[in-house]
Design brief:
Layout lengths: L4 E2 L2 E5 L6 H18 L7 E6 L3 H16 L3 E7 L2 H10 L4 E5 L8 E7 L8 H11 L17 E3 L1 H13 L9 E5 L8 H8 L3 E5 L18 H9 L4 E5 L6 E4 L5 E2 L1 H14 L7 E5 L4 H10 L2 E5 L3 H11 L4 E2 L5 E2 L9 H15 L3 H5 L7 E7 L3 H6 L1 H14 L4 E6 L5 E7 L3 H17 L6
Parallel strand pairs: 3-4, 3-5, 4-7, 8-9, 8-10, 13-14
Antiparallel strand pairs: 1-2, 2-6, 5-6, 10-11, 11-12, 15-16, 17-19, 18-19
Helix pairs in contact: 1-2, 3-5, 5-6, 8-9, 8-11, 14-15
Length: 452
Amino acid sequence: MGKYFGTDGFRGEANVTLTAKHAFKIGRFLGWYYCSRRNDGNRARIVIGKDTRRSSYMLEYALAAGITSSGADAYLLHVTTTPSVAFVTKHDGFDCGIMISASHNPFYDNGIKLLNDQGEKMDDETIARVEEFLDGKSGIPPYAVREDIGKTIDFVEGRNRYVGYLISLGRFSFRGKHVALDCANGSAWSIAPSVFRALGAKVSVINAEPDGTNINRGAGSTHIEGLQRFVVENHCDVGFAYDGDADRCLCVDEHGAVVDGDKIMYIYARYLQERGKLVNNTVVATVMSNLGLFKALDQLGIGYAKTAVGDKNVYEYMAAHHNNIGGEQSGHIIFSKYASTGDGVLTSLKMMEVMMAREKTLSELAAPVTIYPQVLENVRVTDKGMVMTAPLVKQAVEHAEALLQDSGRMLVRESGTEPLIRVMAEAADEETCRKCIRIVVDAIDACGFRAE
């Protein structure tokens, strides 16, 4: 994790933490960097997508100006999803891809995510070089002049090709199914309804009127209660909620109950196992996945691996071990046969596929997973590293784990983006969770690490 780029890109309040100048310099460096790597005499080509935030337009044009000033061409997908940028980058032979989004954050935040030519999260070495340029620690690339100046190209056809790709993955007609979609007033607002209607579903859509300031506002996967009510009140068969850039998806069953990323992974892994297609007989989850998922997988004889939090970590493990299903509790689900990143719309299509193939409701498919109560407390601290190495804190964690024995677990970790220590407990009941968290938090306070 660098100075600017965290686990999911360079993110912060637009024109405060992340400015148009930052975007211009990132574009300028990437344009020069990829032009300098080519040896075929052609310009570098970089594709850009954005979500519906007001500031996304500013950052898009700043990036394009930087790219073209260095002699590369900038291709604009306009409002689209993060997974669509990944798809287009790989399948249309771009040198790299850029997504402008702060995901589930409020509208006044924004972010810049960088993807390599395979549509995967950019490698740490290249990110480090970008950061060195932002800080003025590397040489200044020359500006392109005359005929070497790059151009900006409208590339909405790339987004349309991605929509066609999603439709092509539909193994079943959804005719007769009533599907509710919560598009979070974000990137999925036109893409997801188009895909589901093309596959024959009756589609009801909420939060699909973006105005630049309402992305994620009381909507989408982080505010799923609206979709829960809508599904029940309108007698829908299923509901799907996306986040701002649609790289994650949470589901709502026909009774209005939430089906989170852990249950999604269980449902699809079981479906693959039944067909003999679960590679390595393994699901790749993170340390934040619920104990209930692992117990349910144990019942099926399915193995699992646990990575650090972040879909990048999940994908890297999957790529190294050739796994085909993995993800996060939050709804970042990776189907590696079809995508190189989490894809919310793809996830919803895969849940529909299992429902249609097994002729079961979503509640029936998710029923074997019993989610353990999970309580999380974020503690703002002065020094994350000192907290994690403090003997008193380590002793407190051991004490809490001893109380839980085999009926739960503790997880204490640093936030990847903020000065926070995240203390999580899982147990058979919420009271036990809170008791164990209190033991650890009290130790942090006793050491004097809490920030004012």
